[in-house]
Amino acid sequence: MTVASADGGREQDDDFVMINESAAHASSAMAQDHTLDLISDYVDGVSNELGAISLEIHDRPELQYKECHAHDVLTKFMASQKGWTITRSASNIDTAFVAVYDSGIKGPVVSLNAEYDALKGIGHACGHNLIAVASVAGALAIAHLMEQNQLAGRVVLFGTPAEEGGGGKIKLFDAGAYRDQEVDISLISHPGISSDAVLVRTAAYTAFKVEYFGKEAHAAARPWDGINALDALITAYSAISVLRQQTEPGDIIQGMITNGGLRPNIIHAYSAGRFVVRSSTRARREALLKRVEACFEAGALATGAKLKLTLGGSYDDHMPNKALGGSYRHCFNRLGGDIPIGSIDMLQSATMASTDQGNISYAMPSISPNFWIRSEDERGAQLGGPHTPDFERAARTEEAQQKAMRVGKALAATALDVLTRPELLHEVKREFEEMRHADKEARVKRGVQ
User: Fold this and answer.
1) Over 80: is that where the pLDDT of 10 sits?
2) What is the reported pTM?
3) Distance separating alpha carbons of residues 111 and 157, to the nearest angstrom
4) Domains plus CATH for the chain?
5) Whole-number Å distance between alpha carbons of 134 and 119
6) What would be an example GO MF term here (predicted)?
């Protein structure tokens, strides 16, 4: 939505911080458009090189924490750029890296995350090759304009492996990589088949393995001598099915039985399964997880089997910063995009997918815009989205590369907005602290503090 100023001035984006149509405002808008032109010219100049890097990563897919080729390609390229300092295998993670451009003048620190891991069997079906080069394009453009205009601050490009379940960003964060760089904001993007969006919210999830240990016995001759581990798992599975009727919209429980015993004529001494709990916020996920754990404890209590629950991967939901989103939207739309106003954008772009950028968003202000790429057949019929072979092919096209470059431009413009407008950074941080306070209250309310 746009709003007209009371004095009849031109319509404005209601999420972008503009005061009025004064001469000072007009001058600021002109300066920003000029900056966007400079960013575009620079990114267009490196697009071919980055396109080649994107294809090289795409055509040699590597799984989590094994992205050696992608790590080498990206760090070699960044090391060739003037003024950048590169730390390979950062934080003792073989395929992580940190690239820093420091203006030499103390100021805000803006960061971008690059992903480059692939999926087993279907390669870059999540388009991480595009995420990588969009972030590289943004980082380079920021540094270029910082140098040209002698701007204060730093830009940091984090190479973050293992997004597909391995939590590379979480490991980097826990190792102090973000803290050591004193990062103020974190930016990333993600391709998809849904509309362009900036205020993308993802789901929080926790995966875990469940095992029950019972006692064998002959299932026909002396079943009373046994303790049936499969009965324990089926009891828990049934309890979860009933629990689903009492969960809130956005709560999801998924599961599978991986071991149901040896033979039907044996009382089963062992059973196992894998389960995932998702919810729209981490506070709700943790509360739901407690209820699900109670179902498994009930299975053990009912049968006498011993329960072992082993937690696996866990990602928080992504909480987009609206102030950052307003800046990105303004810049992206100036570049030919069409992201709607904040309230509509947030409603339309919510997803039950999960990412480790969610954990970063609870540690510092973050946005993770979605950008549409074409996954269609020759007749224009919709083909598969992320995590499908169709999308793996879509992530390799020249059109997808150009979409990623536009995103890189908008990310750079957003970061430069933060570097040059102290009032924006103040609003970004104020909103972030409000979000953290609301999360704390929600956790206390749900008894998961």
Assistant:
1) no
2) 0.91
3) 6
4) 7-201+318-444 (3.40.630.10), 204-314 (3.30.70.360)
5) 19
6) dipeptidase activity
